[in-house]
Write a structure and sequence with these properties.
Shape: globular
Strand content: 25-35%
Largest sheet: 8 strands, mixed
CATH superfamily: Gcn5-related N-acetyltransferase (GNAT)
Number of strands: 8
Number of helices: 5
Distance between the termini: 29 Å
CATH topology: Aminopeptidase
């Protein structure tokens, strides 16, 4: 399993394409349409270049799979998202649960959409595509999602996916406003995936 190769995921209305530096201009334009509070969405060319470069470096290390989000109805890029923080657990020798080369856990995050693409089904299908790949191709045991504790819009969106709230990590990381962020943590486990998948498919009527 080569996790450094570019990956494309395609649904009915969404296509997740590999993020490249060529997407800098369009992502910078989209980022200018909203403040995106409580997020790391950059608003300067330097910031966006660093944002993309970091994702590509982590991809080359097999840690992250970054995407741009394409609305298939218009064939326009409307945002970005990632499968990130791939974890390969250090199992005891001889454990029947060990699967060398396959990730055991992954995080879905760095997700943002242009205002005109929000509440359109795009985020729901993008999450369905990434969760399906994580649980059914990589066969991970856990998917993590997190957000700034203050970001109620993001927290509610994660709950609507069917993820379970696990609690708040206090003083977890730098906040986008320059302070210290508490992170609200959520997860979906492999045994919960069938119900979550059915819920997302019902929302999308597929």
């Amino acid at each position: 399993m080569n996790l450094t190769e570019p990956l494309t995921l395609e649904g009915q209305i969404v296509r997740l394409e590999p993020l490249t530096m060529e997407h800098l201009s369009v992502l910078l334009e989209l980022a200018s349409l909203e403040d995106y509070p409580f997020t790391s969405v950059p608003h300067s060319e330097h910031g966006m270049r660093r944002y993309i470069q970091t994702a590509l470096e982590e991809q080359a290390q097999g840690k992250t799979v970054p995407f741009v989000t394409v609305d298939k109805r218009s064939e326009k890029i409307v945002g970005s998202t990632r499968l990130a923080h791939l974890e390969f657990w250090n199992w005891p020798e001889g454990s029947p649960l060990a699967r060398p080369g396959q990730p055991d856990a992954v995080e879905i995050g760095w997700t943002w959409l242009a205002p005109f693409a929000q509440r359109s089904g795009i985020n729901t299908e993008a999450k369905l595509l990434m969760l399906t790949h994580a649980f059914e191709v990589w066969q991970v045991r856990r998917v993590t999602l997190k957000t700034d504790e203050r970001n109620m819009r993001s927290r509610n969106a994660i709950l609507r996916l069917g993820a379970k709230f696990e609690g708040v990590l206090r003083a977890h990381m730098p906040a986008s406003d320059g302070g210290i962020r508490n992170s609200a943590m959520f997860s979906i486990l492999a045994e919960e995936w069938p119900a979550v998948k059915a819920n997302l498919q019902a929302k999308l009527a597929i």
